[in-house]
Model the fold of this input.
Amino acid sequence: MTDYDNVCFVIMPFGTKKVEGVQIDFDAIYDGIFAPAIGRVGLPEGGVLMPRRTDKDFFSGDINNEMFLYIEYARFAVADISGLNANVFYELGARHRTRESGTAIFRQVGSTVPFDIQTIRAFSYDHGTDEKDESARQLIVQVLSESLKHNRLDSPIRLALANQWQQGQAVTDRLKDAENAVHNGDSNRAIQLYKEVIALDLTNPLHRMKLGILRKEQGMWVEAIGQFNAAVGLSESYADAWREKGIAENKLAFRLASRTNTVPQSNPAPGEADLLRAIELNASDFDAWASLGGVLKRAGRFDEARESYQKAREVSNDHPYPLLNEIKLRAHIEKRLDFSGADQRALTRAGRIRELQTKKEPPYDSPWCFFDLAELKLYAGKGEEYLDLIRQGLQLVTETWQAETVRESLRLLEPAAPSLPRLGDGLALLDEYLKP
Done:
């Protein structure tokens, strides 16, 4: 008889599949990364987790039946959504529906995350070298160990339905219509629908979170903060809501200060305490570490900001966002631009990721994929491509703060300008765009 209490069910593609145009051997990733990492995870009551995957571990002849048993009863489940495999999402959805906790999502660096699950943390990992593989294994061990220790609710389905059973079809229909409005680019319609859902379902933090994110994307910082405040009030351990609240509070403080040409002076900086709380709840959230770096950077605490970006680089396996910010801060502090071998490899990988994202229809993570790729071209000495990508990014800007953020960030490179002869031309494009 199977002891499900020590099983970690692995939901991932089989064999070789394409991920962002690259052939990936998922069997090798399971054997070399997930299985050994899971076997390192200790259980609170003693013993260790045992990895299980349908094609490798089930022998009764009825794979589907055993798969559903593991989805239902396994102590933990991990899902690798790289490549957006239909079977993976089916099994992940079944797991989220049946278990309110004990599930973690992973994805390869640069792989797409659909909007429907963007409010759920998907931990990014890299692979291909001994160093990257070991870093990925350490990330998996950390995520699973912390999840087993705290046993926090991680199912968006159970979170969304926690207080919805009595609300009937009206809430369900509005949620469906809101998601469709988001997919169709009608954010105002989606906002109205989420407000109606909240009126029907006052105690569900997920609705508040989604409305807050939409308001954040519109630059409506006061209302965004109100929604994130409500979300953490309803679920104090909601790490993502603490993170978004901190980001929005910092943006609002600087927006208000810009009206009087001042800089917010406070310690902690606006939003800092909320981001530290988010990190306390989820130390593997590279977005929280990177956002804390941004808050500290705007407060002029450059050494601390660089440390936060370095931590974000570490937990994200050199995601382009913290990578580029850490490099800019280093250039600002040391007044020179100097790349290590590890930096060069990370920059090359970041360039491949961002270039693929700019070519998607529509571009993924726009306009940031264009601005990041522009910066990478600047470092490579490709001045005209740098300027062209800034122009393309500006065409996709939806709120002024996005262009302001890019300009503020690139200005950190000015102490190293002698080695970046086209830096000023890009800043001039941003200045022209931001003229009153």
